[in-house]
Write a structure and sequence with these properties.
The protein is of the alpha/beta class. It folds into three domains: about 10-70, no CATH class; about 80-95 and about 255-443, no CATH class; about 110-230, no CATH class. It has 21 helices and seven strands. It has a five-stranded parallel beta sheet, sandwiched between helices. Helix 14 (about 300-320) packs across helix 20. Bound molecules: 2-acetamido-2-deoxy-beta-D-glucopyranose (NAG) (5 copies). One 2-acetamido-2-deoxy-beta-D-glucopyranose binds near residues 424, 428, 430 and 431. It is a single-pass type II membrane protein.
């Protein structure tokens, strides 16, 4: 049964009063304890007090959700995830950290609805010019919108994207969804009925454009139906800076969100970005070519990566707040590149999902050495991933390496990436700079 507006307001007000009293009474205890002690017992409506409180806050913030939306089976379900429950996966990454590769580990699973960078549209609409806005207010607006979008998408409300897609879709249909071809579910029946034939599977990976050309405009209603039909959903994003930005979603028991944070040696990220984002990283290329650091080089480009990583990883590995329990796993790209199958198994074990054989097949097919990389494929994952993970060592100048590892020293230590102190050490790739480390999920 749905809650009426009046009961929502009444309960929200009541809960605020109760919380106020409770907070005053036990102000030394952590808030989470208070909340769990406030679950109502004999209500006429099927909404827990906690959810109504949350709903009240969301109303104040101007979002538009019904009570049914916020209703949860039980307030304590965060800790008792049962095996049949729908799992929502977020791949928290940054550009050029190997996130397309990790995305494929879910994209290839027949029971996972996978979306590649849906927040692109949110960012483009709200912060058109800047990929990393320094303006805190703008960042907050963007992050708030991003969180609401993630929540909607996990609930398969794909029409939420329509507000942000340009030109605005008509009849819930668009040919402008960013990187649609990267999502198998959006390129295969029933969303795409085009006669793709036997090569359909590899087509999705080898040439995303082929999907767009053959499938025609994307019917978002149909895609939403498909999303509902799948047992789980996964989203990859490079547009959320830190794990704490996701706290509200992680704490939402109805969402059952699990975050896989993908990290990579920042020196590897830098080398890859210099190759990929040629305009943005033009001055870094100049540095490499001339051997002299341009005075107007934007060092923030790499400092931001290290700060964001450090904050998230410190939270996830060291401070381990209760709200992250069972919801966070750290994955080093270098480990995935070296031991793809083993790491994929660990990943799926953490999530509580079966590793489908199609995922294993995909890994086996796509982690063998192939050297015929054309520039068109720079975003695809078909490559010799293990060799690639450390090839920054022959691509960056020693000065650039020294600068980066100095700026990122605490992070490198935390993640087990060794620094180098001599050019000979840098170029001698027979000795890996990745220490063996095991990062156990926080359960
Ligand atoms: C609340 O939900 C339970 C089970 O979902 C149902 O049996 C009960 O009738 C519902 N109560 C109200 C007031 O809707
Ligand atoms: C939307 O769909 C209806 C019926 O399918 C059609 O008549 C109409 O022309 C479509 N509108 C646009 C803008 O495509
Ligand atoms: C999209 O798919 C739905 C069925 O889910 C259908 O009713 C609708 O007509 C389709 N829209 C377009 C524009 O084809
Ligand atoms: C793996 O490669 C084999 C042989 O080329 C092919 O038949 C199979 O469909 C591929 N599987 C995946 C998941 O890519
Ligand atoms: C590279 O490192 C290995 C192992 O540390 C060492 O045996 C080898 O001599 C080094 N090669 C060069 C050219 O320095």
């Amino acid at each position: 049964m749905q809650c009426s507006w009046k009961s929502v307001m009444l309960l929200a007000l009541a809960s605020i009063a109760i919380q106020y009293t409770a907070i005053r009474t036990f102000s030394t205890k952590p808030l989470s304890l208070l909340y769990s002690g406030l679950t109502p017992t004999g209500h006429a409506v099927n909404c827990s007090l906690r959810d109504l409180t949350k709903l009240g806050r969301q109303r104040l913030e101007g979002t538009d959700q019904g009570c049914d939306e916020a209703r949860t089976p039980s307030a304590s379900s965060v800790d008792s995830v049962n095996a049949n429950k729908r799992i929502h996966i977020l791949i928290l990454a940054t550009t050029r950290s190997g996130s397309s590769f990790v995305g494929q580990l879910f994209n290839q699973h027949p029971e996972v609805f996978y979306l590649f960078e849906p927040l692109y549209h949110v960012q483009l609409a709200l912060l058109p010019r800047l990929s990393q806005s320094k303006n805190q207010a703008e960042r907050r607006v963007m992050l708030g919108a991003a969180r609401e979008m993630l929540r909607s998408l996990y609930h398969c409300q794909l029409s939420s994207l329509e507000t942000y897609i340009r030109p605005r879709p008509s009849n819930h249909s668009t040919d402008k969804l960013f990187r649609r071809g990267a999502s198998r579910s959006l390129c295969t029946p029933p969303v795409c009925e085009a006669p793709l034939g036997l090569e359909a599977q590899s087509l999705v990976l080898a040439d995303e454009g082929e999907c767009v050309r053959r499938c025609g405009p994307l019917n978002l209603s149909l895609a939403a139906d498909t999303c509902r039909g799948k047992r789980h959903a996964a989203i990859k994003t490079v547009r959320i800076p830190q794990i704490s930005d996701l706290r509200a979603l992680i704490q939402d028991p109805r969402l059952n969100l699990k975050v896989v944070q993908l990290v990579r040696d920042p020196r590897g990220i830098l080398a890859s970005r210099i190759e990929t984002f040629r305009d943005t990283y033009r001055l870094w290329r100049l540095w490499r070519a001339t051997g002299r650091r341009p005075h107007n080089l934007d060092l923030g480009q790499i400092n931001t990566v290290c700060e964001d990583f450090l904050r998230s990883v410190s939270t996830g590995l060291l401070s381990r707040p209760a709200w992250l329990r069972g919801r966070y796993m750290l994955l080093r790209y270098e480990d995935l590149a070296r031991f793809p199958l083993q790491k994929a198994r660990e990943l799926y074990a953490f999530l509580g999902l079966d590793l489908d054989h199609s995922v294993e097949d995909w890994i086996i097919n796509n982690t063998r050495g192939t050297s015929d990389l054309s520039s068109r494929q720079k975003f695809t994952t078909v490559r010799d991933s293990a060799a690639n993970a450390e090839n920054w060592r022959v691509k960056l100048s020693f000065d650039m390496v020294v600068y980066t590892q100095t700026a990122c020293k605490p992070l490198l230590e935390l993640l087990g990436y060794k620094r180098v102190f001599h050019p000979r050490e840098l170029r001698n790739v027979s000795r890996s700079l990745v220490e063996d480390r095991t990062f156990l999920p926080f359960l």
